[in-house]
Design a protein that fits this description.
By secondary structure, the protein is of the alpha/beta class. It contains 19 helices and 19 strands. The protein folds into 2 domains: 212 residues, YjeF N-terminal domain (Rossmann fold), CATH 3.40.50; 291 residues, UDP-N-acetylmuramoyl-L-alanine:D-glutamate ligase (3-Layer(aba) Sandwich), CATH 3.40.1190. Helix 9 crosses helix 16 and helix 16 packs across helix 17. The relative contact order is 0.09.
Amino acid sequence: MKLVTAEQMRAIDTETINNRGLSGPELMENAGRGIAEKIRDNILGEPADSKIAILCGKGNNGGDGFVIGRYLFEYGCDVTIYLPAPCNNLSVDALLNFNRAKELGVKLIAVEACEQLPENLEADYIVDAIFGTGFSGSPRGLLSKFIQYINIRNIPVIAVDCPSGLNVNNGLCEGDTVQAMFSYPLAAAKIGMYYSPGREKCGFVEVVPIGIPDDVINKFDIKENLITSDMVSKLLPRRKPDGHKGDFGKLFILAGSTGLTGAATLAAEASARSGLGLVTVGCPQTINPILENKLTEPMTYPLPDVGKKGFLAKRGLGGIRKKMTENDAVVIGPGIGTHYETRELVQKLVSEIDKPTIIDADGLNAFAKNREALAGEHSKLILTPHPGEFKRLIDEEIPDDLFDKYNMVRAYAKKYNSVIVLKGSPTIVVDTNGQLFLNPTGNNGMATGGTGDVLSGIIGSFLAQGLSPLDSAIAGVYIHGLCGDLAVDDYGERSLLAGDLIEYLPEAFILLETAEDKTT
């Protein structure tokens, strides 16, 4: 699903109106009817028993609100629409639908001051149709008061297109912004609805089609995409009914060092829980007994270490090459530390690698002072840095501007000929062609040590099962975040641990597989 800015959405609307035979009023009718149907089918129990208050602005978002009010009125709802006076000071299309609602008998109340709004609003839901996606800056005047009025009611809010006051290009809220329980973006999802603080203002988000043809959106070569559950369901590796463990992939994880055996454990257990046939952890010989004790299903492969200090030594290169040959994919980095011999070992391995490979954590840090070693002929790498690791990897400041950051990641994905997973809130996945995929799952409870190791294990499992690097990364980040969202319901954000995510992998897979069954 494409993610758009306000400017892109405006251009898409213009192209549709000018060249595809759909007028502005028709698009507004489709938008209002589509949201009204969502409200009726997904939110209201009995429309005839529901009281709906709609607060409209003067522009086309307000026009959508008039259409919504008309349809909800026809469904049997008790609808009251509030709008700023004078009523004739509306956009052309909004005025048209104001008059249609008036002719139908919908209750319309024009107000000149917020004090004219009822102090004790009797409504089951408020529909916010004040500002749409074209808004930026800080709300002022009466419409700012409308937003304040909505937010102090203890009534669930349904936002038309986006919560009023939100900048959909970057997620910023520079002034009063509606706090919604449901948001229904029209035609396409908007980028700012997935960045804090805007993300927290939107509540449940679902795109409502309004009749714009897919090829119109595709015409604009939009490279930002939203990862969806439907997309991930279709990516999940198929399992042969008569398959054996050799059919479901073999993964080699080069991980662990003194004090960091937990990273190796988390990556290995996460990969085993993600449909993998066999996983082997290559670790320093000194810490092998610890991992033997921690791990049950995953196997270990002890390797020479530096003076029994628990760090991988260069003389283990031959054994590692052997294991790479025997496995379908490789993960390098969780908890390997930054000893200079380990860094040199990793650089040598990556320079000659021909297997689908994830480089994570200290595996990435090994290239902080030798970045050109990543710019080889390989074509199957996934790099999974958090912002600090990415900064060390490129030796540049990461821009604050959203699209400057996007373009920076694109440039390095091309330079390193790798898929880059830039972890954060939200995590983004960028391929070598500049396509960007934003992950909507996850929460701040996942901001704790070890969650990145779990992610490497999940992605590595998909790589070993035969998914491409891009598809492995897309599926991995979504499922990783979904596990966090499932876990937080039981543990809360404050008490969530990385290992808890692994516990919820079965439930996450069942949800996705069930959703897939319903669509096939």
